[in-house]
Amino acid sequence: MTTLPDRRLLLVHAHPDDESIGTGSTMAHYAAAGAHVTLVTCTLGEEGEIHVPALAQLAAAEADQLGGFRIGELTAACAALGVSDHRFLGGAGRYRDSGMMGMPTNGHPRAFWAADLDEAAGQLLDVIREVRPQVMVTYDPNGFYGHPDHIQAHRVAMRAHELATAEGVAPAKVYWTALPRTVLEAGMSHLTASSDNPFDGVDSIDDLPFGTPDDQIAARIDGTGQHAAKEAAMRAHATQIPADSWLYAIAGNFGAEFMGVEYFTLAVGERGPGGGPNGWEDDLFAGIDVTAPQWAVRLPEQPGHDLADPASAGDGPQRAAATAGLR
Predict the structure, then answer these.
(1) What pTM did the predictor assign?
(2) Pairing relationship of beta strands 261-268 and 173-178 according to DSSP bridges
(3) 3 close to 25: Cβ distance less than 8 angstroms
(4) What is the DSSP string of 62-125?
(5) Annotated binding-site ranges
(6) Which residues contact 29 (CB under 8 A, 6 or more apart)?
(7) Which of 30-39, 117-126, 135-144, 300-309 has the weakest average pLDDT?
(8) What is d(CA 120, CA 145) in angstroms, rounded to the nearest whole number?
(9) Element (H, E) at 262
(10) Partners of 222 in beta bridges
(11) Bridge partners of 178?
């Protein structure tokens, strides 16, 4: 029998690389602290742009092999973050990257955007039953910035939580990724003179599809100690994030706050004790008794599903956004 750690965190992301860009520091922070971190990725990211010229023919319109290649990138990213439990929703290739909103790819027969909500939520429910996470992280109703797969990931995660609640196995808390307006304003100001400014032409943060008022933020996770792990995970996604991306410039010059610290709103559950001038939580598990009986779980060891080995984890039951690699 395999006994999981007392603290268990589940993250639901749309494409490979979303986990590293949006929550990489948080994932590495909790993994390093001994928590069990489970990542569920909903698609293979088949419609992503390719920033490695030698791999250009893997694109969807050509060999259509990018999704398979990105499995390897995600495996390497998870290893960098110290995350050993990763699954694709419904198995690798069950759901396809839908592309940007309004694109013909939204109508692909396997497009995640068109997935049956209860079927997809049932597949995520299987993971919740198995792992019994106390905390789940996903996107807000707009998918952070409006990508159809991000929106669908939100819907699937929240529906799975409803189903899990009916069974008495739901995570105690659900957080949505967020970026405080003050942090966004500081980042925009820092990049004003950059030759690779993703906010070029944006006059106000009100023109962006993301940015959360500070008083709506519930948690601030300081993952600066894992900043290098997050950057390594991002570099593992080489097809999606150019080697000279502005993200790495921030990592080198402004990384402690903009890259190493991640923020969340609390969608479900009771807010735990916090600190600092805003009273934000500094721990997603704040206020949860992780040793309570309802969280007890022991998993039978299964051949081919080594929770210590990302490679064997198995498949388990626009400019600012686009240039940031937000796909």
Answers:
(1) 0.87
(2) antiparallel
(3) no
(4) TT--HHHHHHHHHHHHHHHHT--EEEETTSTTSSB---STTSGGGGSTTBGGGS-HHHHHHHHH
(5) 15, 18, 150
(6) 221, 222, 223, 225, 226
(7) 300-309
(8) 22
(9) strand 261-268
(10) 261
(11) 263
Q: Which residues are annotated as a binding site for Zn(2+)?
A: 15, 18, 150
- All domains in the chain, ordered by first residue: 2-323 (3.40.50.10320)
pLDDT for res 181: 84
The Cα 15–Cα 17 span in angstroms is 6
Q: Read off the pLDDT of residues 104-163 as tens digits, 9 standing for 90 and up.
A: 999 999 999 999 999 999 999 999 999 999 999 999 999 988 899 999 999 999 999 999
Confidence at 298, pLDDT banded by 50, 70, 90: low
Identity (one letter) of the amino acid at 150? H
Encode pLDDT of 176-203 as tens digits. Answer: 999 888 877 766 666 655 555 565 566 6
C-alpha torsion 229→179→282→75, nearest 10: -30
SS (HEC) of 163-187? HHHHHCCCCCEEEEEECEHHHHHHH
Structure tokens at 105: 């790819």
Mean pLDDT along residues 312-318: 38
Q: What percent of the chain has pLDDT over 70?
A: 80
- Rounded to 5 degrees, φ, ψ at 15 are -135, 155
Phi, psi of 189 (to 5 degrees): -65, -40
Backbone angles phi, psi at 175, to 5 degrees: -110, 150
The Cα–Cα gap between 18 and 20 comes to 6
- The rounded distance, in Å, linking the Cα atoms of 160 and 138 is 12
Q: How far apart are CA 212 and CA 263, in angstroms?
A: 10
Look at 248 and 312; give whichever has higher pLDDT: 248
**Which residues fall within 8 angstroms of residue 93, CB to CB, at 6 or more apart?**
44, 67, 110
